[in-house]
Each structure stands twice: as C-alpha cells, then as structure tokens.
Amino acid sequence: MRHNKKFNHLGRKAAHRSAMLSNMAASLILHKRIFTTVAKAKALRVYVEPLLTKTKEDTTHSRRVVFSHLQNKVAVKELFGDVATKIANRPGGYTRILKTGYRLGDNAAMCFIELVDYNENMLVEGTKKASKTRRSRKRKTADAPVQEAAATQE
Fold it and tell me: Among positive and negative, which fits the CA dihedral 35, 36, 41, 43?
C-alpha cells in the first residue's frame, strides 16, 4: 500500500531520482533557467526551494547541508554569493514555472523553471501592471470643451 506517499517518483529508483534532482538544481542555480518537463519541474521546485531558504543565513553548517544535496562547489558558491543577496528579502516562492507547450516526440508537457528574481522581463511587467488604473464611463470630459465652444459660437 502507498498510503501518504505523495511525491512524484518520476519513474526512477531513489538513487537515480536524487542524482537527477541534484544535477537539475545545480543547473538551475548556475543558469538561472532550465527547460524541462512539468513533472520534473514540480519535483525540482520542492527539492530546491528549501535549499534556497538555507542560504539566507551564511554559516558553515548551512553551506555543508546545501553541498550535501548539490555536490557541486561552483553551484554552492554561486548560491551563497549572488543568489542569496537577491532573494534575501523574499519570504518564499523563489522559482517560477512557465509552461511552453508539448514535446514533439512523446507529447510530454514542457516548461521553463526559473529563479524569480532573475527574469528582468517579468519584473518590469510586474511594475507596469501595478500602475494601471480602472476605466471610467466618463470619457466625454475631453470632448466637452469642444462641444461647449461650438454651442457658444452658434
């Protein structure tokens, strides 16, 4: 019985799955965005977000815990350097999944998974949407002076 076993096994044995998630997490940290299937991206998000939370306090212990998951010195250095400063004031939700369509060969759902603070286009669009105002029914205010001027000339 598989009661209360909710995470996705991704069709792999435990060792293969942990190695794959470790490699994908290191690639995500180094490249800031990777292209993968939706199922792997959702599994990666569960795997990598606690590691990103650990980077908020830069201690030897947290570095060792993160290294035990990633097994990549370059990724750990990048994570505790540049990435940690960008996510320092964010209270969670460090990754974003953007669905892109379906793969041609097997019709698998594909997506980008990216670090939220590194997509400059989404950050700019987010500020534009905040300045948008509600539309009003009173649109004739600009035309009213023209109509009044025409009425006074008659």
Answer: negative
